[in-house]
From TrEMBL:
Pfam family, one: Arginase
Pathway terms, separated by semicolons: Nitrogen metabolism; urea cycle; L-ornithine and urea from L-arginine: step 1/1
Protein name: Arginase
Origin superkingdom: Eukaryota
Organism: Rhizophagus clarus
PANTHER family: ARGINASE
The keyword Manganese appears for this protein: yes
Amino acid sequence: MVEYKFVEKKVGIIGCPFNGGQHRNIGVEKGPKKLMEFGLIEQLEELEWGVEFDGHHKLNELRPAEDPNIGKLKKPLYVSRVAETVSKAVESHLKRKQVALTLGGDHSLALGTVSGTLSVYPDACLIWVDAHADINTPETTKSGNLHGCPVSFLLGIAGKVPGFEWVNKILSPDRIAYIGLRDVETSEKKILKQLGIKAFSMHEVDKYGIGKVVEMALDAVNPGRTRPIHLSFDVDALDPTVAPSTGTPVRGGLTFREGHYICEAIHETGCLVSVDMMEVAVPDHEIYPDIDDSQVFATVTVGLSLIRCCLGETLL
Ligand SMILES: NC(=[NH2+])NCCC[C@H](N)C(=O)O
Ligand SMILES: [Mn+2]
Ligand SMILES: [Mn+2]
């Protein structure tokens, strides 16, 4: 039995139907509702967790009437307001000794979730599982999509951006480790190098195996397993054959088991306090005829089983 170092066996679910951090009309805002419909609460209760569900946050009400680009950044005010709201929700669950489980929605939400975690646990570390580094700054982003930028804001390297003044919990570069990277822009590679950030791409997963990679990632950011862990899981870290229904799929990703192993191993530390399950999309058939029901089903169910593994489901 795993002993939980920071929480009681209670989890708060924060539903975040949000797509403002990216430009595709692929239904990434419909992910949270689908994850709930497929039985998340019942599954966590089966694992003997006390479950509190906020209801899905009405994030579209935060959309400002006017929200001009700032430089390249698209919908900056909307993303900022949403992230601030989400940060408060995470904070409130953590303060009550619950695990905060955030369902997305696009990955710009993690600006909120990680800020919320850091405000309750300033010494927390971050494991970011993703095909992408999401570390572009307002200067380096080509797309202007804020879901490609949250980590730069968290590290305090985004510079001053109007509306984002509330982001003041700074993550030190030696407290973040990446797993699963394979679509990293040149500008992002430079930042990773400059800051000496521990990043395990798919190359390292191939070379060392997932068991060793997770151990090295944890040793880097949480050597004594004494710090709280925030896990931010972008479902596109998984190979598109495993999780096809997402906005920015990239070939050559984590297998089903590799994804689950990461969650199982992090659970075993007893340090997990906050989990994001992001970028699960539910597209409209008319707009995305290439993604069918069985692919949405595969993606939603893998998201659910990753969450269960984070919260202690084991194979035996
Ligand atoms: N959370 C994600 N899926 N991010 C994809 C980011 C893609 C690209 N690097 C960008 O900055 O736009
Ligand atoms: Mn990604
Ligand atoms: Mn991401």
